[in-house]
Write a structure and sequence with these properties.
There is one protein chain. This protein is globular. It is built from nine helices and no strands. Helix 2 (17-32) runs parallel beside helix 5 (64-76) and helix 5 (64-76) runs parallel beside helix 7 (104-121). The protein has helices spanning 2-9, 17-32, 39-42, 45-53, 64-76, 83-93, 104-121, 129-132, 138-143. The protein has one domain (2-143).
Length: 145
């Protein structure tokens, strides 16, 4: 887990994309191995790794698999994020490397992850309205045409 932590928080700018994508996927699979209510997921190093990944700049990685893996992990385990991390993730989802990406598949996946993030937040999603308001109108329509 220590080397996984190093890849996700320190070395993510210099390791090849397949190692970074593998590290993000490994983190995702670690949680899938047990029940979501298990001690392995809710306590210990896993929540710390989820928190640490949001302090990095992985979302600006150039490879689409790394970017989409990061957002998938973020949405699935948003319950470990504080409101600042959620707002930062939503801002990144609405940004040029996600829903405004030049890669069609990234745009579509990020739109899906954005939907899932707001659904998971249930009544708290209204806190994101100022952030969401910056990405509306013709801008939204033009990026998905």
């Amino acid at each position: 887990m220590h080397s996984l932590y190093n890849i996700l928080t320190v070395l993510y700018t210099i390791v090849p994309f397949y190692q970074l994508e593998g590290a993000v996927r490994l983190l995702h699979c670690f949680a899938l191995c047990g029940n979501h209510n298990s001690n392995y997921v809710n306590e210990g190093i896993f929540p710390s790794l989820i928190k640490a990944i949001h302090s990095t700049d992985i979302a600006s990685h150039t490879h689409p698999l790394v970017v989409t893996s990061y957002y998938e992990l973020s949405v699935r385990y948003y319950k470990f994020m504080d409101i600042n991390d959620v707002q930062r993730t939503v801002t990144l989802l609405l940004g040029t490397n996600a829903m405004r990406s030049s890669v069609y598949q990234v745009r579509c996946r990020c739109a899906y992850f954005f939907l899932k993030m707001t659904e998971a937040m249930e009544g708290k999603a209204s806190m994101l309205l100022p952030t969401i308001g910056s990405f509306s109108g013709t801008t939204f329509i033009n990026y998905f045409m």
